[in-house]
Amino acid sequence: MSETLDDEEVERRLPADWERDGDEIVRTYEFDGYPSAVTFVNDVAEIAEEEFHHPEIVLRYDEVEVRFTTHDAGGITEKDLRLADHCDGEY
Asked: Which PANTHER family does the UniProt record give (predicted)?
């Protein structure tokens, strides 16, 4: 099981445009329209499946909200930050 990161470590390493919301990190991505947003969701889903670490994803017409936490650790871990970086790479 992964170990949670302390508050200072999370704040120091949180990727640009991501925010902390309790025991989660969250970012909302904006797109030109629905097809682009769906493509992004599919790309993130592929990464999540490979890593077996699945975010909460909310799809709107031209926005996608992504939230990461490590439930079995009870908070934010290295894996959450790494996958947030992967999401940014897909954007």
From this structure: PTERIN-4-ALPHA-CARBINOLAMINE DEHYDRATASE
Report d(CA 89, CA 15) in Å as an integer: 11
How many domains does the chain divide into? 1
Side-chain-facing half-sphere of 24: CA atoms under 13 Å: 12
Mean of all residue pLDDT scores within the chain: 95
What confidence tens digit (pLDDT) does each residue in 20-40 have? 999 999 999 999 999 999 999
* Residues comprising the chain, all counted: 91
CA distances from 24 to 56, 61, 62, 68 (A): 10, 23, 23, 5
Supply the CATH number for residue 66's domain: 3.30.1360.20
pLDDT of amino acid 2? 81
Range of the domain at 63: 7-90
Is 62 inside a domain boundary? Answer: yes
